[in-house]
Target: Polyamine aminopropyltransferase
Amino acid sequence: MADYRETLYEGYGQQLRIDELLHEGHTDQQHLVIFRNARFGRVMALDGVVQTTEADEFIYHETLAHVPILAHGAVRRVLVIGVGDGGILREIVRHAGIEEIVAVEIDAEVIALCREHLPQHSAGALDDPRLRLVIGDGLDFVATTEERFDVIISDSTDPGGPASSLFGADFYRNCQRCLNADGVLATQNGVPFLQPDELSGTARHLAATFADWGFFLAAVPTYIGGAMSFGWASNSQRARATDLATLQQRFAASGLRTRYYNAEVHQAAFALPQYMRELIDG
Ligand code: SAM
Model:
C-alpha cells in the first residue's frame, strides 16, 4: 500500500496510508486526491495538503459555522467563500432561520468530485433550495456584489494557490463592506505554531479594517501542529460579547445535535495562549 505524504511543511509532515485510491488528477486549478484510510475514513487533499477527512471534519465544520451564526443570533443571509466538500454548507443549512446562502467556489470540479466520493460531507446541502452557488473567485465576488450578509465564512485553502487573494487587504476590506451592521466574518486562518505569518498578517489586516476582531481556536488532528486559528471580524462588538447564558439558550433553541460544538467550547475558543498573543501584537 502506498502512503500519502503531505507536502505543506518543509522537513515535517503527516503521512496517511492509502488503503484505497478513489480519485487522483488535476482540475483546472489544483491537484486533487481522494482516498480511503482505515483510521480517518475518506480523505481529500488539494495541492499536497490534506483538506478534510471523514473522521475529524466535524470539529472544523461545526466550529467555523456555528460560532459566528450562534454568536450573531439572528442570521438570515450567509455568504460562503470556498465550498469544496460542502461540509460548511451542511452545518449552515441546519439553522432553520437562515433564508439565503450564497456560496462561491473557484473550482467546480472539487465540488463535483467531493459530491461523488465524500457525500456525507455535504449530506444533501448542495441541493438545499436556499443555496445559490456561484462558480468564480471569492475576491471578485465580494469586490463586485451589492448584496449584504449577516455572516461571511471564508472556508479557504491555505494561501499559496488560488486562495492567496483571500488573505489580502482587498478581501478583508470588501468583506467589511458586504456585512450588515452586526454581521460577522469568520475565516480559516491556519495553524499558528507552524504558520505564524498567517496569524500576524491577518491580525494586521483585521485591525486596520474592522471595529471588532480576534481569533478563535480548535484542534483538528489532521491540520497538524497544534490548534488551528479562525479569524473573527465584525463592524460591531455585539456578536462577540454574547454571554454564555445566551449562547446556551440559542444552542438549545437551535435543536442542533453536535459532536464538537457547545456554548462552553464556543466561549473558550476565544482564549489565546501567550505565543499567539505575541504574534498578534507584533
Ligand atoms: N472544507 C474544507 C475542510 O474541511 O477543510 C476546507 C477547504 S475547502 C476544500 C477550500 C475550497 O476553497 C477549495 O474547494 C478551493 O477550490 C476553494 N478556493 C480556493 N481559493 C478560492 C478562491 N479564491 N475563491 C473561491 N474558492 C476558492
